[in-house]
UniProtKB/TrEMBL annotation:
<keyword id="KW-0500">Molybdenum</keyword>
<keyword id="KW-0004">4Fe-4S</keyword>
<dbReference type="GO" id="GO:0046872">
    <property type="term" value="F:metal ion binding"/>
</dbReference>
<dbReference type="GO" id="GO:0016020">
    <property type="term" value="C:membrane"/>
</dbReference>
<dbReference type="GO" id="GO:0051539">
    <property type="term" value="F:4 iron, 4 sulfur cluster binding"/>
</dbReference>
<dbReference type="GO" id="GO:0045333">
    <property type="term" value="P:cellular respiration"/>
</dbReference>
<comment type="similarity">
    <text>Belongs to the prokaryotic molybdopterin-containing oxidoreductase family. NasA/NapA/NarB subfamily.</text>
</comment>
<dbReference type="GO" id="GO:0043546">
    <property type="term" value="F:molybdopterin cofactor binding"/>
</dbReference>
<keyword id="KW-0560">Oxidoreductase</keyword>
<keyword id="KW-0479">Metal-binding</keyword>
<dbReference type="GO" id="GO:0016491">
    <property type="term" value="F:oxidoreductase activity"/>
</dbReference>
<feature type="domain" description="4Fe-4S Mo/W bis-MGD-type">
    <location>
        <begin position="8"/>
        <end position="64"/>
    </location>
</feature>
<protein>
    <submittedName>
        <fullName>Nitrate reductase</fullName>
    </submittedName>
</protein>
<keyword id="KW-0411">Iron-sulfur</keyword>
<dbReference type="GO" id="GO:0042128">
    <property type="term" value="P:nitrate assimilation"/>
</dbReference>
<dbReference type="GO" id="GO:1990204">
    <property type="term" value="C:oxidoreductase complex"/>
</dbReference>
<keyword id="KW-0534">Nitrate assimilation</keyword>
Length: 727
């Protein structure tokens, strides 16, 4: 290209950060990404981008990009380059030996909501279909697993019934445990615009902290962390007494009402207000605003999901919609926001240990038979695999001997980090597949496989409102980095050879060898071939996309599922006919009891710590940590503390404080913040060793999980705090 003026090119894509799924136009010169702007045609953002999205072009290159496979000597800084065949062969040899001697359940995968739909499909086929292990979980377990189990329990299927256009027609927005202003900034702008256009729009915000989202609330309920089920039951109690039920909807479209009615009888407004530590008048006002609204839309995120009772919280919130008939109409419905760009795509393709593609269940024999037939395998293992926390516990016990971690940083993001570190130290082989070097997890890896990143590969993703976007390749990946699905495919080929070398028994005579089986099952040349196979898995299911192909997505723009054969557009809203995908066709009221938090405060650990996101950083900062401008608002990790608590503990702004829980401690700089209620502390979850060596907030958090969803309780840890005094 020397002497030739570079031509500015553009490629359509989507932002790789939050589940809003904003459309992005990548500006590039064919080799490097030079700029980004919002895609004016994308219905998620209509051309807008937040601070993170508008700086994306500054994150795509850097010294820390993984460019070639690397072998690592644990405990050292020695990384030696390998060629792809060498790297995959080394890995396949160990994996084949473990599979041959210990069985397939001794190997595990831990993947990410940032993988594409194609990646998710291929890695699940590799794990569940080829190897025969269901131990494959995703970091989406940490953010939306409770919404999945909540939807399935109440509505019969993991299907978000609403879309962003419902923000524009809702009369009441009930925002619970979601700091939309920081975690989904473009959606927050849409909410602000709706409020400006229609001041009568009632916004209720429920959050233990007075967040920037709460700043636009008409009613703000600063509940005690973990008391959401009591709040929702209390609101339902008031809705019953005040006559706001939709009896026709309850009778025609639901079941389980009498049990729930009996349950909420004891959740009197006075008791609930005391339990949640809010004024009874505010509780009543919120219930009445919800009940009176012609259309009420609930939005929630980690505040409900990251809980040892996350499923209960989800179903108790959905109860409010079913009792008032607030579902399946414009502006009405329970809408869980996803944290990551393709958490939804992972759910669709079966990217969790209890799932199979097309919203099928491992535990369901018919579902297993359907996918086994589509994959051309004899059978699938019937037992769901481990979710994230038990998976790393099994690794520490030695029950799982090796783990392949893809596009995520569990040493920073998992609760009770020291347990995760112990597990990785114990593992026989830790493989890390990532686009970036130097994450906290890399220190524990034996092998690093370089993955192509955003803008460097074709991909499909599904955002929070079920909308599928086609991301195009803008520039080549650096070095020999490959798309994740291609690494999984190539590994299958080499693992086949390694299993044959050990004479590992084949399940049947269908294939002449493991190598032949791999060639048959992973005959994927490109994204299109993967999509066409996955698409078939959705036929006749709630998420049927048999009418979609890449040309429809490119010509008509991103589409919401379902989009079955013969459709001309995606479906904006589900359950408009009042028919739910349950055996009876009725939605189910659930009646959980309020159970509190997993680790209550006591005399030794008398304060409550909650963790969360900042506006300008993303996860463990592999990308946002490269952009100086994004440090402007928050340059380092910190601890927010309420003024009276700060005074009592002799703490003030900018002092250092030691925060301790039963599992570890952090040193954090103090910010006194009157927006917290007494006894509550807040620390951001982003900062890792590179930015704050003594401030890994998940050293404090506990590994208690929801018994149904397996999601950990990040939102409440009992801690003590003391000043760090220098002599
Ligand atoms: Fe990206 Fe989310 Fe910001 Fe949109 S709102 S630009 S998807 S981080």
């Amino acid at each position: 290209q020397s002497g030739q003026p570079l031509r500015r090119l553009e490629s359509k894509s989507a932002c790789p950060y939050c589940g809003t799924g904003c459309g992005v136009i990548i500006e590039h010169d064919g080799q490097h990404i030079t700029g980004v702007r919002g895609d004016p045609d994308h219905p998620a953002n209509f051309g807008q981008l937040c601070s993170k999205g508008s700086n994306l072009h500054l994150t795509s290159r850097g010294d820390d990009r993984a460019r070639e496979p690397l072998q690592h000597q644990r405990g050292s800084e020695n990384w030696s380059p390998l060629r792809w065949p060498e790297a995959l062969m080394q890995m396949a040899k160990v994996w084949a030996e473990i599979i041959h001697t210990q069985g397939p359940q001794a190997v595990a995968f831990y993947v990410s909501g940032q993988l594409s739909t194609e990646d998710y499909y291929v890695v699940n086929k590799l794990a569940k279909g080829f190897i025969g292990t269901n131990h494959i979980d995703t970091n989406s377990r940490l953010c939306m697993a409770s919404a999945v189990t909540g939807y399935k329990s109440s509505l019969g299927m993991d299907s978000v019934p609403c879309g962003y256009e419902d923000f524009d027609s809702a009369d009441c927005l009930f925002i619970v445990g979601a700091n939309v202003a920081y975690a989904h900034p473009i959606l927050f702008r849409r909410i602000e615009a709706a409020k400006l256009r229609r001041p009568e729009l009632q916004i209720i915000v429920v959050d233990p902290r007075r967040t920037p989202t709460a700043a636009i609330a008409d009613i703000f309920l600063p509940i005690q962390p973990g008391t959401d089920v009591a709040l929702f039951h209390g609101m339902l109690h008031i809705l019953i007494w005040e006559g706001f039920l939709n009896r026709a909807f309850i009778e025609t479209h639901t079941e389980g009402w009498e049990e729930l009615k009996a349950r909420v009888q004891n959740y009197t407004p006075q008791w609930v207000a005391e339990t949640c530590a809010i004024p009874v008048a505010d509780l009543r006002a919120a219930a009445i605003a919800f009940g009176q609204a012609p259309a009420a839309l609930s939005l929630w995120c980690q505040g409900l999901n990251q809980s040892s009772h996350g499923t209960d919280k989800n179903v108790a919130l959905i109860n409010l919609h079913l009792a008032t008939g607030q579902i399946g109409r414009p502006g009405a419905g329970p809408f869980s926001l996803t944290g990551q760009p393709n958490a939804m795509g992972g759910r669709e393709t079966g990217g969790m240990p209890a799932l199979l593609p097309g919203h099928r269940e491992i535990a369901n024999p018919e579902h297993r038979a359907e996918i086994a037939a589509l994959w051309g395998v004899e059978s699938l293992h019937p037992q769901p695999g481990y979710t994230a926390v038990p998976l790393f516990q099994a690794l520490e016990r030695g029950e799982i001997e090796t783990v392949w971690i893809t596009c995520t940083n569990p040493v920073l993001s998992m609760p009770d980090q020291t347990q995760v570190q112990r597990a990785l130290e114990k593992a026989r082989l830790v493989v890390l597949q990532d686009s970036f070097l130097g994450t906290e997890t890399a220190a524990y890896a034996d092998l690093l496989l370089p993955a192509a990143s955003w803008g460097e590969r074709e991909a499909l993703v599904t955002n929070s409102e079920r909308r599928i976007t086609h991301l195009r390749t803008a520039v080549p990946a650096p070095g020999s980095a490959l798309p994740d699905w291609m690494i999984f495919r190539d590994f299958a080929f080499i693992l086949g050879d390694a299993l044959d070398a050990l004479n590992h028994p084949l399940p049947s005579a269908k294939d002449a060898s493991w190598a032949a089986r791999a060639q048959r099952m992973f005959n994927f040349a490109d994204s299109t071939s993967i999509f066409l196979e996955y698409r078939e898995c959705t036929r006749g299911r709630d998420l049927d996309i048999t009418g979609l192909d890449f040309s429809v997505l490119d010509n008509q723009g991103p589409q919401q599922w379902p989009y079955p054969e013969g459709a001309v557009a995606g479906q904006a809203r589900l359950y408009a006919d009042g028919v739910f995908p349950t055996p009876s066709g009725r939605a189910r009221f659930r009646d959980p009891e309020y159970l509190g938090v997993a680790e209550e405060i006591d005399a030794r650990y008398p304060l409550r710590l909650t963790t969360g996101r900042l506006r300008d950083h993303w996860h463990s900062m592999s990308r946002t940590g490269k952009v100086a401008a994004l440090f402007a608002s928050d340059a380092e990790a910190f601890l927010e503390i309420q003024p009276d608590d700060a005074r009592r503990l002799n703490l003030d702004n900018d002092m250092l404080a030691k925060v301790s829980s039963r599992r570890g401690n952090n040193i954090l700089r103090v910010r006194v913040n009157a927006d917290l209620q007494p006894g509550l502390l807040f620390a951001p979850m982003h900062f890792g060793r590179r930015y704050a060596p003594a401030a890994l907030c998940n050293q404090l958090t506990l590994a208690a999980i929801d018994p149904i969803s397996g999601e950990p309780e990040f939102k409440h840890t009992a801690v003590q705090v003391e000043p760090v005094l220098f002599p």
